[in-house]
Write a structure and sequence with these properties.
Structural class: alpha+beta
Radius of gyration: 27 Å
Number of strands: 36
Largest sheet: 8 strands, antiparallel
Low-confidence stretches: none
Strand content: 15-25%
Shape: globular
Length: 723
Amino acid sequence: MKPISIWAANAQSELKLLEPAAEISKELRLSAYLTSDTLWLVKEWPDGKRIAFRTAFSPSGKLNIKKIHHENHEIRFILACSTIIYEVSVKYEIEKLFFRYTVMATPKIPLVIPFWPRDILSFDEKGNIKQKSTVHTQQRGTRSGIIFFNDGRSGSVFYFQNLTALNSYCETTKCSAGGTVGGEWPEIGFSLPATNAPLEKDKTYTFNDAFVSLSTQLPDTPAEIATAYMDQLAATYLRLPRPERIYHNWLDTVENGLKDLTYHKGCWTFSGGHSYLNAYVADYKTPPEVMVQLAVLLPMLDYLDWKEETSHQLVDELRSGLENFYQEDIGTIVRWLPSAEKNLDHSEEQKKPRVMDAWYLHHPLMNLARLSERGDKKAKEILLKSIDYTIRVAKKFNYEWPVFYQMDTLDIIKAETAEGEGGEKDVPGTYADLMLRMWKITGESKFLKEAKKAAVKLKGLSFELFYQANNTAFSAGAMIRLYKETQDKTFLELSYVCLASLFDNVQLWECDYGNAKNFPTFFGVFPLKDAPYTAAYEEQEVYSALHDYIKEVEDLEILPSVRLLIAEFIRHMVGRVVYYYPPLLKGDMIAQESKTGEVDPTLWIALEDLHDGWEQSGEVGQEVYGAGIAFGVIPNQYYRIKNESFIIFCDYPTSKFQNRGKSVSFLTGGSDQLNCRIIILFREKEKTDIEVFWDKEKITPIKHTAEMLEYSIAGNQNVKISW
């Protein structure tokens, strides 16, 4: 039997003997119970077992109900103890098996809180705390405040803590909302973070704002868990208070960034007769990396296509040095420029000659494949010379890659990300992506077979599939392409597992305390499963990969929750990631020293890292290879109209875009339960004859200036603009 805390033991003892203080919903079998220290919400499952949620809590005991008011699917409690006055609100939806409880607390005295017990306990039919459960996932760091679990055999629970509501508490007490949702069975859920400064007397704070979705279904397989997770997340998302994004003019930002990237000396290094981009501004010690060159080159080419330009000195410079990364004696491109490998300082495991990080071999080859698809003969030559080595590595490791290996001997240098957790588990997906691109380029069936062999290695994995955000997103795209090719639903389900793992590594709350008051955080993506910050480069690549995913499924029947979540991620990403650029941030929130290179706060080059509000950002460095952000946003969200002086912007993905004469039409992505922003930008003079139709109904703009017209239109709608 697992030991339990004195708070859990007290609840177990008292709840057995109590009658309800109030029946909240007979249909939901949800009632309120008052123990000596807690107002509990107790849900009875169909099998007679119960699960309890702690709302108001008195550390000193002697909690009393002063008033109860029940009306229209909401019940309110006023309670008090010796130090705090509480107001607890419970709202519920019978048909959806959903309820939300919000706890507002007003201290009677300046108050410090060194500890707070977690808010979920589960009981068997005899009233004893359950010993077994299956927790599918829970919050890590400052990611979303989620815990998703099967409550024994009784049912499943998707619990979401709205951490945005805690901002006032965290600002006053100088604490973080990170790591607040989780725990170890049987005491799980949310724990109010310990204070580092006192709460103010007579000021009201939110202590808890929980969204609870219940189900009698017990997801068991990775596909079932992923589907349930995304469906419940999307349903909760619709109920959440969500921040509105301010439109940012990326057309100016991209030119600022392009100028700095091209001409700022800190972005470049020179070796072996060629100029190469540094990974970080002013990092002249580390040799040039092949991934860095390609991570900027590909989005830059997309941007030039959008501008209808065929060349740029930056593109020419990057292309000219690519072949120098090919290592003849190994038979492949390598990470570090071979002629400069001697400058590696051995400070990290991968900063040694001929050491490869597993994902790092595939990523530049995937980009070489994209260049090949664009007709780049030199890129295709390098790709074809490298691919046999890549397949040999895959077979050597049986399509289950370690973290680091020696390129010439294939000896494993680091087998696992952490003890017992295996290697980089999403790398089979990036390999499958590469093989599918090779199959498209060459038509050789062996590459399709290789893609399938790798994809099979993702089976059986759930949230642990995620290693690195961009690679997990690429893996989702590879799986959906395999599904389209084979009609094998296994691959569709694997794409869902990849997406669920990705959405489990986002921050669905707005941090508004400390330094984070200077930048938005809602729907930020973390680069690694344990990373303490969001990262510019991975966010941009996830964004691009999800755009590609939506294009692939345009005519497929997929989960509505997938379309909703992807569209909303794109919408928030477009309005949020511009704050990686230091000219938009306050100087005192940027780290004075960075791990790599230097930070120039006047430079339109993205910081790698944005942190929790109580930390400084830019500690890792200023990320030259994150320059693809602006290059990637513009071709996906801005639409040039032939022979016209205006541009159309939409912050959702769109499809079926057509320009015929004096009109354009397209379909907005996402869900019709949410709205997106469409803006008509006048580059020269205002046009007064523009009309916008939403499913054939003419609509009026919500904002009208000499520079723009702005509209709010639902997702999944046909839009026509005429002039």
